[in-house]
Write a structure and sequence with these properties.
By secondary structure, the protein is an alpha/beta fold. It has a single domain, classed as Rossmann fold (3-Layer(aba) Sandwich). The protein has six helices and eleven strands. Helix 3 links the parallel strand 9 and strand 10. The two termini are about 15 Å apart. The model has no long low-confidence stretch (mean pLDDT about 95).
């Protein structure tokens, strides 16, 4: 293991590069290759490891992302604080297109994803009633406020498999279940990071109102609409990520949610090249 970068950033749809003059690393893992090479460099005065979740050109659909490989690779580089960006659909009026949401909860509706590192002889039960780090969330809310962008400081993200978007009935069901936004990648990425002692904060950008609006509504979700609005929002998303990274204190380390020796055991597993 190394200490190349104490801060990690996973870029969501549209955010495929972040660091200038960065070193590009191939990081083999016990779970195969990550989504892309990891770039390590300096952002806002911090050593940062950046990984595009969907690959360099959005080549990986949500259900095909190697979540365990991604998280293991970042942990192996010394990441202890992880900032993730996501495109989401809004399920409530307070999460309208253009709003940034800093979720404090998620509702995992995914199936058949590898959601733990502890699937062998050793059993560990992750306790994560509040999965997003409170200090990192406060820093993100402060950063978003300072950037003068619309922000909702709490929310529950409903995570679905994808790659299809929800039906109108499903959108209404997710909203009635307490969902604020809907997304396809926040799980198992977040709990996997917690299993390796990495604290997480997510900054979600609302691109649409999912399917819970009438047909033909200007904010009804389509792939084209999501990508169009993400492209327009890239400058502010990059500024927000940098502002969050800048606020993370030197030496930040959250208390691990599983025993330290269990984490060390996972990180000592032989890699697959």
């Amino acid at each position: 293991m190394s200490d190349a970068a104490p801060v990690g950033v996973i870029g969501g749809s549209g955010l495929y590069s972040l660091l200038d003059d960065a070193e590009r690393l191939e990081v083999p893992t016990p779970y195969g290759a990550p989504s892309a090479r990891i770039t390590v460099g300096v952002l806002a005065g911090r050593r940062v490891a950046f990984l595009p979740r969907h690959g360099g050109g959005h080549t990986l659909a949500p259900h095909r992302i190697p979540y365990r490989a991604n998280v293991w690779a970042l942990a192996s580089l010394g990441v202890r604080a992880l900032v993730t960006s996501s495109a989401v659909g809004g399920l409530v009026d307070e999460a309208a297109p253009g709003v940034f949401v800093v979720p404090d909860q998620y509702l995992d509706r995914t199936t058949n994803r590898d959601g733990t590192f502890y699937d062998g002889a050793r059993v560990e039960h992750l306790a994560a009633p509040d999965p997003f780090d409170p200090l990192l969330r406060d820093l993100a809310i402060d950063a978003l406020t300072a950037e003068h962008v619309p922000v909702r400081p709490t929310g529950t993200t409903v995570v679905i498999d994808g790659p299809r978007f929800a039906t109108r009935a499903e959108s209404r069901f997710h909203a009635a279940s307490g969902g604020t936004t809907i997304n396809m990648t926040l799980a198992p990425e977040t709990p996997l990071a917690l299993e390796l002692g990495i604290a997480v904060v997510n900054c979600s950008f609302v691109t649409d109102r999912d399917s819970a609006v009438d047909a033909g509504h200007e904010d009804a979700v389509t792939a084209g609409l999501v990508l169009e609005r993400l492209a327009a929002a890239q400058p502010v998303i990059r500024r927000v990520v940098a502002a969050v990274v800048e606020r993370i204190p030197d030496g930040f380390r959250a208390g691990p949610a599983v025993p330290a020796d269990a984490i060390a055991e996972v990180l000592a597993r032989p890699v697959r090249r």
